[in-house]
Amino acid sequence: MTDWTAADLPSFAGRTVIVTGANSGLGEVTARELARVGATVIVAVRNVEKGRAAAAGMRGEVDVRKLDLQDLSSVRAFADSVESVDVLVNNAGIMAVPYAQTVDGFESQIGTNHLGHFALTNLLLPKITDRVVTVSSMLHLMGKISLKDLNWKARPYSAWLAYGQSKLANLLFTSELQRRLDAVDSAVAAVSAHPGYSATNLQGHSEGRISGALLSLGNKLATDADFGARQTLFAASQVLPGDAFVGPKFGMAGPTGLSTRSPLARNARTARALWDLSEQLTGTKFSI
What we know:
Layout: E1 16-20, H1 25-36, E2 40-45, H2 48-55, E3 61-66, H3 72-81, E4 85-90, H4 108-124, E5 128-135, H5 159-183, E6 189-193, H6 209-221, H7 225-237, E7 245-248, E8 256-258, H8 268-282
Parallel strand pairs: 1-2, 1-4, 2-3, 4-5, 5-6, 6-7
Antiparallel strand pairs: 7-8
Helix pairs in contact: 1-7, 3-4, 4-5, 4-8, 5-8
């Protein structure tokens, strides 16, 4: 563990970074800090107008592009627009929202948080030179992968359990991606990070009055977006082993370093089965 902060970021001059969901919250801070140290940052957002507003407050070379993770055709179009990238930061996400489906018929949380990023990563993989950073959450601890009903079509929908499943999927995706990268002796690394608990607008769309009240109280105790993004920035810039999981020492707060994950997040068999299912659902494959 270290007292590392964004002030310790190395130069990213000459490097290109994609940050999904970079129009607000953790993504905006992540993009801002990487642009500050010289990266060419591609702000990949569903709402281009909001993305441009966020980019206006960043110092450096920032390119705003349309990416709707809830629409695989948009994911493909975005990937086609990218020539090369050093670091991909899979940051965008939604949390504990009412039941909805993506354009492709996926439950919106697994569709946005996992399947959209799964497709994006596979499509970009031949163009990535350094690493893939995927933002998970400590709430993966409440997650369980249902391979038979990933999209909540046969069981009563729970907004929080669906969120936990999607964040657990992020970690299993990272582990299986790293296994596949190792198998082909790729120099690309797959790592993940979690912010602890940071007060951002992510919580503003959660389902129900009780959830809203609890999150409002939690936000009074939470760290700020700069602290949460610090974990992502560490994961994006420091020398780390493949499949590293970065986060605050004490879960919600503390120095940045390697974090712990649930036993379910270490299940290699589930990781492989989830990968196979995700390939089927998205029509994308490991492409190195």
